[in-house]
Amino acid sequence: MKVKVQKERALTLLNMIVFCVIVLLFPVCGSVLSTGWVQSPGHPRGYDPYSNLTWKKCASTGHKITLTLIHLDLEESFECEDDALKLFADEVLLFNLCGRKSMRELQSSVNPFLHSSPGGCLSVSFLTDYSNTERHTGFRGFYTIKDVDECKDPENECTQLCNNYIGGYRCFCRPGYTLDSDKHTCQVSCSEDHTGSQEGVLMSPDWPEPYPENSVCSYTLAVEEGLQFELTFMGVFDVEKENGQCIDSLTIKPLYGGVQTFCGRDVPPSLLTRSQRVEIIFRTDHKGANRGFSLSYKTRGMKCTGPVTPKSSLNPQHAEYPTGYKVTVKCDKGHVLKSHESAEDEYEAICQKNGQWSPVIPCEPVDCGIPELPELMELSEKEPSTTYLNQISLKCENEYYQLDKNGNLTCNADGNWVSESGQKLTDDLPKCEPVCGINTDAFFGGRVYGGKPALIKQIPWQLFHKKSPRGGASLISDYWALTAAHVVDGYETTTMNWLGAIVDGKSQNPVSMETEKIIIHPNYQKVGRDSPSNYDNDIALIKMSARVPIGPHIRPVCLPEKANEPVKEGTISGFGRIKDEKSSRYLLYGHVQIHPLGECHSEGLPVTDNMICAGGDEVDSCQGDSGGPLFSPVLGYGSPDKPYRLTGIVSWGPLGCGNKNLKGFYTKVQNYLDWIKETIEKNSK
Ligand code: 4AZ
Hints:
Strands 45-46-47-50-49-48 form a six-stranded antiparallel barrel. The chain is elongated, with a radius of gyration of 53 Å. 7% of the residues lie in helices and 36% in strands. The longest helix has 21 residues, at 2-22. It has five helices and 50 strands. With 685 residues, it is mainly beta. A hairpin with a 5-residue loop joins strand 39 (462-465) and strand 40. The termini are far apart. Bound molecules: 4-(aminomethyl)benzoic acid. 4-(aminomethyl)benzoic acid is lined by residues 620-623, 625-626, 650, 652-653, 657, 664.
């Protein structure tokens, strides 16, 4: 039996040598460390049903295992479901084989892939079922464990020399270089420590010959406090640079202040380091033939220079200051000392032995903050910058309001927002005032004679007192309305209820406003038992108790301007009487001409310059219209450039209304501009 085993081994070895010589290339067998066969049970006689073989072999580090199949004859089946030879490398299935394959086929399509990774494993699983109709011989192959030549692997690149040995590799360097701790990079030993030396020379390795590749040279200069280094470059400066970028570099790192990096061929200027300690680092990459640098260093007394901190100036002003020197640091205009409560902008600093100023307190811009704004006003920008010289602009919340003055503000040096005219915001806060004399009705440019029902957007300043006394008023701001004195005469101490945004007297949802104040013109002669009816100064101001909600259906009319030329025509409106002696359910309007007072009959009643006489052929105001507007231009002709203005207030008419020859009388609003302005100012909170 023993004899037989030895005989078989000898045969195996012989087989392999023959195979190596005949089939494979000789060098492959040359690096073989261990070999062996793997085959199906019963080979070459044939395998039995239900045969089962699992085989696995692993390589140690620096080695890999390969398998070469030289024979394959298994039962053929769909996807090798019946009998199968499965081949795995590093636990990954490479092949699932069955049927017959010639040596040539195996060599071309299977064997080149049967190898593990370095240190990995190959495994084989051979499984058969019961159903063979003819006998198949099975498979046979041999494995080899070989050394891996890591020096050929580009990932393991040694920067200079590589030595492969069985199970590993090693990088090594040419004389004069040392292997870096990464075990791959060869570096020149070029670092120098010049601590304590007051003067000397530094140069790149091999200067003036080209410097070596892959170097990091660190030169340390250090002396006692109170001194600094002056560096002067000598001769050629040549450090690799490509497309404006430093490939190799010379970096100067003082203990204090900025780091500077140099490369290229321009000789850097002399440098004062302002530090008693400097590190100079010279880095090179793996290629290039540049000559490097040479510099001399010597010490100088330490000096301080300005500025101590950005956005400040020094007093006195010198190019440099010796150690121990005291200066006054003053922040630039609009800047104060950081985290100083009292907005101080000055302090004293002393030049230290290390060339630094002490103390150093930064100057930062004054911050005006977000201003507190009244109702209806907002900033145009959501989160504006609010520091010195930044600008913000105010605006009103909606299109129905506008600022009464320019809303552009600048943060000044004192931390105040100021207007373009230099006024402080807190002293002169702009106001949002409703835009007057505009309606959102389409311009229709045609005049309509006779009482016509108004649309809700057409006369949005019309107010209506529905209960007795029935009358009208005109809104002139978001708190105030103008009416006739005789309408509110006797109601000064009561609360009246006025309606707005209404064209149908039966409307269920008008804007309802309560009066807070009713102020009759002081020169209006109240109707009393002893005084006859007199409509001179028939004007009164009404203040509402809450801000009127301005919008498209309720918004003010403008007042006339002092210098306005007398107008020749206008529109009157109201819920007053119509021909059949009944009050109108709807707001009616009509156009009237304005006549010289002398042309108007007054039936003996006094007429004054505070009155306007107006009337149209078919149009007149009447009882119940009193207090309402006579506005110009005629409805339909207003525009943002020519807003509607309150020319008159419906006041009185001799002998009723609607008579062709008799015109109506209206209070001349232009005569009361000062009284209106003063009274409103006096009676606003
Ligand atoms: C009134 O009785 C009245 N036609 C108002 C205006 C006019 C006439 C009477 C003008 O309130």
